[in-house]
Amino acid sequence: MNDTAPPKWPMLVYYGMSLVSLPLYLLVFVSFLRLRCVSKTYNSVFYSILLQHCIADLLAMTFFFATNPMRVLPYIRDFYFKYQHYYITAASYNSVYYFLYVRCTGIMFLSLQRYYVICFPTHKLTFRVQAVSSIKIILVYWLTPILISIVVLKDTDFEYDNYERMAILADHDVIQRNTLMALIIVSITCAVCSFAYGALFYYIRQHTAGFSKSLRREVHLAIQVFVLLLAFFAILVYYGFQNYFSQSEDTGPIFYMRALYPVANGLLSYINPFCILFLNRDLASQVFRTATCHRNITSDFQVSAIITTSTKHPMKRDTSHDGPNSPVTF
Asked: Using the 8-state DSSP alphabet, how is residue 208 labeled?
């Protein structure tokens, strides 16, 4: 085992990111919930998925904060170390991958929803997607990553190396499997979303002149999701290095990559509120009104409606598709 102390600057960067971004994210989240109580617009399928993505981000950061920075406190450290075999250590490790897969499925759902609503507004499948209830969205959003994560969640053979450092130890085979699986899932996510946005970009290039005002709003929402997607490409690079180093016997790079995880996790979580504020003018204005203690004013434009005349040229309905132990590394 390499006893070289991991760098401390990534955790300091994480604290700085959290100090600025977490209060902002909470403000956006509260404003979002208020709007869903008074406006049909913000109860659309797109915003229902986006709400789940916001919840996933906040839960991921809360769980990470509780199982990592908080364990430096004496009483919490004592509790974690004493009861580490009651899934506490395993939860600290497994949650990293579970919340990664939650957000991977979330960005995929958001991207595909944008693709179908803009490119196939009159397709039967699009109507079905737009008619999905909030309960079904919640179930699909959270159950899908659970199914993906079963391989990870069943592992319990983890322990802290010692009371002072509290570094998690895991079997090297488990590390290799989980980093490879994470790389595959993130790669699939980036590939599917890239295909959706490539086709979306091509469609926009072909029909820009005939876009209605409602469809232009849909495109603006797609741009918001696209910028959010860029963070997943950064995570793809991160897990590419993770998988490469996990194949070697040198634990030094593993320690270093593990130390970088707070920055990667913070980037994946905290980019969303900035995407909303800078790329979603309507929602941003409501957040500003919440911050200044003004009542929300909603216009209830049909953000995610099925647009039957999205271009100047009539569109025919498409019916063809009916029917040994090593230090853990994240």
From this structure: G
Stated pTM of the model: 0.85
Q: How far apart are CA 166 and CA 77, in angstroms?
A: 8
Residue in the structure block whose two tokens are 């949650």: 95
Confidence of residue 41 (pLDDT cuts 50, 70, 90): confident
Which of 53, 67, 94, 109 is closest to 269 using CA atoms? 53
Domains, the chain, ranges and CATH? 9-317 (1.20.1070.10)
Q: How many residues does the chain have?
A: 330
> In this structure, what DSSP letter does residue 312 have?
S
State how far the Cα of 74 lies from the Cα of 138, in Å rounded to an integer: 38
pLDDT at 315: 43
Nearest to 43 by CA among 138, 127, 111: 138
Residue 169: strand pairing partners: 159, 327
Region 126-138: what's the mean pLDDT?
Answer: 93
| Residue 303 · residue 46 · CB < 8 Å | yes
DSSP letter for 169, please.
Answer: E
Q: What is the secondary structure of 147-191 as a DSSP string?
A: HHHHHHHT----EES-TTT--EEEEHHHHHHHHHHHHHHHHHHHH
Beta-carbon contacts of 43 under 8 Å, excluding residues fewer than 6 positions away, are: 36, 134
Q: Give the CA angle between residues 186, 192, 194 to the nearest 5°.
A: 95
Summarize pLDDT for 214-239 with one digit per residue, the tens. Answer: 788 888 899 999 999 999 999 999 99
The residue assigned the tokens 């490879």 is 180
Give one DSSP letter per residue of 258-300, joined into a string.
HHHHHHHHHHHHHHHHHHHHHH-HHHHHHHHHHHTTPPP----
Q: What angle do CA 183, 187, 193 make, to 5 degrees?
A: 150
- Residue 135 CB burial class (10 angstroms; 0-12, 13-18, ≥19): exposed
